[in-house]
Amino acid sequence: MIRRIINRLRSLITVVESDGYRVLRPCGDDWDSGSFQLRRSPASIFLPSGMFAETMRDLRTFLASQQWYAERGVPWRRCLLFEGQPGTGKTSMAMVLASGLGFDLAILLLTDPKLTDDRLYSLVQAVPDDTILLLEDIDSAWKPKVEGDKRSQITMPSLLNVMDGVNSRQGLITIATTNHPEAIDQAILRPGRVDRRIKFGYATRDMARQMFLWFFRDYPMLGSNEIEVIESRKARLNTLADQFSALIPDDDCRISPARIQEHLLRYRDDPDLCLDQAVVSGFVFESRPVEPANTDTVPMAVAPQSMPPAANSKSIDDLRAAILHSRKLR
């Protein structure tokens, strides 16, 4: 108890001094004092239009409705499930939501081999106020064990109990993530335990364009304060962004936002070189192994595993050739 009070006092002092939020990790049956991260802007994540705003509105409504829940005898808690392939923005979304609410983020891995039923209960009850609980990879806790592979010791009834049973925490926002929603027991997914399921898909052309403009947003102003130069560079940057996003196939795209970000980070100092290397390397067609989906479950908002159709591939090949030709003429 004393350690918990000390940790809370530390956090309050640090929050005043830093425009950030804490990322908490389990420490025994409690949480550590947290590592601080700068608050993330919603503009730094790239999702389908309205997805972030709708989710933020949902959580703000929940937090302002304690009396409404009490008057109607409804447990005051909220659980969201973020589902999608790795690199599609699930954890980033949780971080930006915490930033937007002015909350901290407590991350619990259900695969922790030291996690027991009693420890799970203690950790959920010890989550500080104004903190979102993030349950990473909720589908992985009960996967069949392989030789040498240790899993957590928690049981299904224990998890269900802390989600919406007598041991559940009132006023708590929980976000669970999964790469494989088809592997989650239906008892976890039933309404009342999971209030909303939010699907994260692969990158679209619009997302790729937004990312390009975000990473190079300072480019028009570099080394010049002349309006004509800045406007000319803005126009050029928009053209480069259009050409970059056109490399993303309209259909059958299996490129994660994280893959695009990796490329943008590598060539962050030169938008022209960034586009050139994307064209030359053909990075958009790199194949990544993906496990087949279970057709008995609600389909995720992702594309099939096949490569882009021939017509689409040909149009992108033509685009590459045109971009390379324009570079030679510069």
Description:
Helix 5 (117-126) links the parallel strand 6 (104-109) and strand 7. The chain has a seven-stranded mixed beta sheet with strand order 4-1-6-7-8-5-9, with helices on one face. Helix content is 43%, strand content 13%. Helix 9 runs parallel beside helix 11 (271-281). The longest helix is centred in the last third of the chain and has 20 residues, at 310-329. It has 330 residues and is an alpha/beta fold. It has two domains: 2-200, P-loop containing nucleotide triphosphate hydrolases (Rossmann fold); 205-329, no CATH class. The protein is elongated, with a radius of gyration of 23 Å. The chain has helices spanning 2-17, 51-63, 66-71, 90-101, 117-126, 156-164, 186-189, 205-215, 227-245, 257-266, 271-281, 310-329; strands at 20-24, 26-27, 30-31, 35-38, 78-84, 104-109, 131-136, 173-178, 196-200. The model is unreliable at 285-313 (pLDDT under 50).
The amount of beta strand, in percent, is 5-15%
Q: Write the CATH architecture name of the largest domain.
A: 3-Layer(aba) Sandwich
What topology, given as strand order, has the largest sheet?
A: 4-1-6-7-8-5-9
CATH fold-level name of the largest domain: Rossmann fold
The string of secondary-structure elements, in order, is HEEEEHHEHEHEHEHEHHHHH
